[in-house]
């Protein structure tokens, strides 16, 4: 079963603020697609973790 992050959780994984994450979703990270769970946006954990690794955040203890 896939794991999903909320917008705030995804931003935390990427070590940026939620507003910066929203801005980059529109301009740079257009391949990251959100899913709507009621009023909440969710993102596939695998997509966010891969992006974090590519940005050099793999030293984060929460990432494999």
Q: How would you portray this structure in words?
A:
With 64 residues, the protein is an alpha+beta fold. It has helices at residues 7-13, 18-27, 45-54, and strands at residues 4-6, 35-37, 40-44. A three-stranded antiparallel β-sheet has the order 1-3-2. The longest helix is centred in the middle third of the chain and has 10 residues, at 18-27. The mean pLDDT is 88.
Outline of this structure?
With 64 residues, the chain is an alpha+beta fold.
The value of Rg in angstroms is 11 Å
If you average the pLDDT, what whole number results?
88
Q: Briefly note the structural class of the backbone.
A: alpha+beta
Strand residue content: 15-25%
Shape field: globular
Helix segment tally: 3
Strand order of the biggest β-sheet: 1-3-2
Helix content: 40-55%
How far the N terminus sits from the C terminus, by CA atoms, comes to 17 Å
The low-confidence runs, each spanning 5 or more residues with pLDDT under 50, are none
Order of helices and strands: EHHEEH
List the helices and strands and how they pair.
Layout: E1 4-6, H1 7-13, H2 18-27, E2 35-37, E3 40-44, H3 45-54
Antiparallel strand pairs: 1-3, 2-3
